[in-house]
């Protein structure tokens, strides 16, 4: 493997790792938003709180 190919490969691996980490953060935030929206909707509709979990 040439130096150029090795650097490109390493850069791509680093990039993909960063992308995966950022996507995991995004998914976590999205789950939290959906959870909060569901709780808000349950309160708005005056349903039992058990349905908001």
> What share of the residues does DSSP label as strand, in percent?
under 5%
- The rounded Rg comes to 21 Å
CA-to-CA gap between the ends?
53 Å
Shape: rod-shaped
Write down how many β-strands occur, each being a DSSP E stretch of 2 or more residues. Answer: 0
Helix content: over 70%
Total count of helical runs of at least 4 residues:
1
Low-confidence stretches: none
Query: Averaged pLDDT, please?
Result: 86
> What structural class should be given to the helix and strand makeup?
mainly alpha
Secondary-structure element order, N to C? H
Largest sheet composition = none
What would you say this structure looks like, in words?
This protein is an all-alpha fold and 53 residues long. It is 79% helix and 0% strand. It contains one helix and no strands. It has one helix at residues 3-44. The model has no long low-confidence stretch (mean pLDDT 86).
Q: Which SSEs are present, and which pair or pack?
A:
Layout: H1 3-44
In short:
The chain is an all-alpha fold and 53 residues long. It contains 1 helix and no strands. The model has no long low-confidence stretch (mean pLDDT 86).
């Amino acid at each position: 493997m040439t130096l150029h190919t090795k650097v490109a490969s390493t850069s791509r691996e680093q990039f993909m790792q960063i992308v995966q980490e950022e996507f995991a953060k995004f998914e976590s935030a999205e789950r939290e938003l959906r959870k909060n929206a569901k709780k808000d909707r349950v309160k708005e509709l005056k349903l039992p709180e058990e349905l908001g979990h």
